[in-house]
Automatic annotation (TrEMBL):
InterPro entries: ADH-like_C, ADH-like_N, ADH_Zn_CS, ER, GroES-like_sf, NAD(P)-bd_dom_sf, SDH-like. It catalyses: L-threonine + NAD(+) = (2S)-2-amino-3-oxobutanoate + NADH + H(+). Its cofactor is Zn(2+). One of its GO terms (biological process) is threonine metabolic process. Keywords: Metal-binding, NAD, Oxidoreductase, Zinc. Belongs to the zinc-containing alcohol dehydrogenase family. The lineage of its organism: Archaea, Methanobacteriati, Methanobacteriota, Stenosarchaea group, Halobacteria. Pathway: Amino-acid degradation; L-threonine degradation via oxydo-reductase pathway; glycine from L-threonine: step 1/2. Residues 1-23 are annotated as: Disordered. Residues 5-335 form the Enoyl reductase (ER) domain. Its EC number is 1.1.1.103. It comes from Haloarcula quadrata. It comes from the Archaea. This is L-threonine 3-dehydrogenase. GO terms for molecular function: amino acid binding; L-threonine 3-dehydrogenase activity; NAD+ binding; zinc ion binding.
């Protein structure tokens, strides 16, 4: 099977690898669509993300969906022909975190495209059947692949307990910020503000339904939020840029008693926070790491037409053109590139 392998930073090689056989509890999936995520681009450019270092050739891609072509002997809930979205992180199922239900915090998780685990820029993936979610007729495999960033958005909104009538401020209008926008709207938020430093990103966010956008290179965010909320502040702030000034600004724009959800990964681990302000305003600050139990919700939201994910796709490329697709994905105005396979 054709497989795109990152052999060095900025260098893919197209290899012919043996097609895997599904284990007893697995499905073999012919991959149809794979999104290019910011973390894929980071591994492509730098060969590492923090402590995760690409030491051996690695297959990137963790936003994937395709068609089941074979099932393992114990699999009863999938059959060849099913179209499925693949949840990329498979936990050990035995540790304290898994047993508590926090399987996304499992320290032995096997997460696609995170060294040393291969991802989905390949023709076939064999994957645990219970981490493959059947897509109804009305949901495309491209949408199935984008259940992954949508899941990040759903989990962030759950962490922030976003609810009916809330004002939600999302900092960063990249794919994650835009998926938080979708999830927040679906959760009942009525006023959604997005910030960014790139005009085109903000124009796009506005087209996708943001009630207010703020270019933080031109406009003071505190003033804009205070004006919009009559001086109260946002009920929930979801930080989705990873930019230090943006992380710092979250506690200034959240309302007293509100919630800050940190999703974006800062390049420096330490970002100073005014803890007195946090205490005085009784602000809840939550980290949000990947997701758990979101795929069923993501598929249902797509089937019901409650969210749009396909609209963030800028371009689709073939596996053979993966180098070019990654280079395009590095342009600041590009939101989402996809690799489509028709094996
Ligand atoms: N916690 C998790 O589980 C998780 C999952 C996926 C992604 N992430 C992280 O979330 C962040 C967003 O992911 P993405 O794929 O959308 O990234 P991205 O880089 O595509 O988007 C980030 C956006 O933030 C904007 N930005 C930069 N500086 C800003 C500032 N000062 N104020 C407001 N906006 C600013 C950028 O212009 C860009 O549009 C990244 O840090 C990523 O690593 C975290
Ligand atoms: C969650 C996923 O989208 C993220 N890029 C990660 O590797 O954790």
């Amino acid at each position: 099977m054709r497989t795109a392998v990152l052999v060095e930073p900025t260098e893919f090689e197209l290899e012919d690898r043996p097609r895997p056989s599904p284990g007893p509890d697995e499905v073999l999936v012919a991959v149809r669509d794979v999104g290019i995520c910011g973390s894929d681009v980071h591994y492509y450019e730098h060969g590492r993300i923090g402590d995760y270092v690409v030491e051996d050739p690695l297959v990137l891609g963790h936003e994937s969906a395709g068609e089941v072509v074979e099932v393992g002997e114990n699999v009863t809930d999938h059959e060849p022909g099913d179209r499925v979205a693949l949840e990329p992180g498979v936990p050990c199922r035995r540790c304290a975190h898994c047993k508590r239900g926090d399987y996304h915090l499992c320290e032995s998780v096997r997460f696609m495209a995170t060294p040393p685990h291969d991802g989905a820029f390949t023709e076939y993936v064999s994957w645990p059947a219970d981490f493959a979610y059947t897509l109804p007729e009305s949901v495309s495999t491209a949408e199935g692949a984008l259940c992954e960033p949508l899941s990040v958005g759903i989990h962030a909104c759950r962490r922030g307990s976003v609810g009916t009538g809330d004002t939600v401020l999302i900092t960063g209008a990249g794919p994650i910020g835009l998926m938080v926008l979708e999830a927040a709207r679906a959760a009942g938020a009525t006023d959604i503000i997005l910030t960014d430093v790139v005009k085109e990103k903000l124009e796009f966010a506005e087209k996708r339904g943001a009630d207010l956008t703020v270019d933080v290179t031109e406009t003071d965010l505190d003033t804009a939020v205070a004006e919009y909320t009559d001086g109260v502040g946002a009920d929930v702030v979801v930080e989705a840029s990873g930019a230090e000034p943006s992380i710092k600004s979250t506690i200034d724009v959240v309302r007293r008693g509100g919630t800050v959800v940190l999703v974006g990964l800062a390049s420096e681990a330490e970002v100073p926070f005014d803890v007195l302000e946090l205490i005085d305003n009784e602000v809840d600050v939550h980290g949000s790491f990947r997701y758990k139990n979101t795929y069923d919700a993501a598929v249902d939201l797509l089937a019901d037409g409650e969210v749009d994910v396909e609209g963030i796709i800028d371009f689709e490329s073939e596996l053979e053109d993966i180098d070019d697709a990654f280079r395009r994905s590095m342009e600041p105005t590009v939101v989402k590139g996809m690799i489509s396979l028709d094996s």
